[in-house]
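Please check this record.
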Amino acid sequence: MAANERIIRQVRAYTLRGGGADYHDQQRGHWIDDHIATPMSVYPEYRESRQSFGLNVLGTLVVEIEADDGTVGFSVTTAGEIGAFIVEKHLARFLEGATVTDIERIWDQMYKSTLFYGRRGVVLNTISGVDLALYDLLGKIRQEPVFALLGGPVRDELQFYATGARPDKAQELGFIGGKMPLHHGPAEGEEGMRKNLEMIRDMREKVGDDFWLMLDCWMSLDVEYATRLAHGAAEYGLKWIEEALIPDDYWGYAQLKKNVPPTMLVTTGEHEATRWGFRHLLEMDAADIIQPDVGWCGGITELIKISALADAHGALVIPHGSSVYSYHFVVTRTNSPFAEFLMMHETAEEVVPMFSPMLLGEPVPVNGRLTVPETPGFGVELNPEIDKHRPYTH
């Protein structure tokens, strides 16, 4: 029976703890939770650890969608028990009984039916998870990789930059660049600014002149501080300054893009969602590169639209993290010339699967490059040994 005749039999939602899609849910001592500047850095008691203010409270959401022939597609994202409730108690009605190929209609119904409490955040994370599971299911039924469903690859392999605390190790491992977390925000004054610039200078000395260095500010700055930081870092060849401001400050981003040195790019978007949010960024000329997370922005169905908008505005689309879910998209888009790899090794010194131990068959870059496997769907399976929990049913 063809895919356009397959009917969705059941939708199930599970939660998991400890790493995985909620990659901030790590043990103490991991680089990703080591005095990284955040919007909460204005409060000293929440400055040392992002987990201290609750960054790891959600956990991972697993969405499984089963067709009438028993084929199961699945995905993982960050939404936890809240997302599981939304899937089981609200979104399942738009899926069960629908045809597997009705992805566009299902997305539209999920989005419009949740507008009164959604539009961003956990609700869009959850919609993204459902959408990704649908693509995984359709690929498995058609026995095609997701990238084939999206029109096929435009390049033979992906090349990556690495995000982590050790760009010098990323260079040794063959990545094209390294993006460091910012450690000190405006509340830490001029001493913090000095330490930030010293970190960039020291890393530039380690990697030499030709290796990309970028800075992830994780929504922690204001326009004045970000402008001074950008100009101070210019002499060390900083390629871009990322997510310097809170996501809703489109006007601030537009001003910052005017303020930074001409050699530096302004990037943002991992916490933005939907074509309308990114339209605002693009029409205000607020970023050189947009960075939607396919597990948060609305899934592949919405990322296709976001990418087309960006292409029309001359902006690159370099999705945030997301492992295989990004890989299958990036390899099909000419305005996504490289990809991000999040170094989930505790000290960012080794390449390990981003969503480990949750996924089996998750590919990782070798020498900073990756050929996306042609396995049906997204090419990964859920590890049967992980402790998943289904908190709700319908």
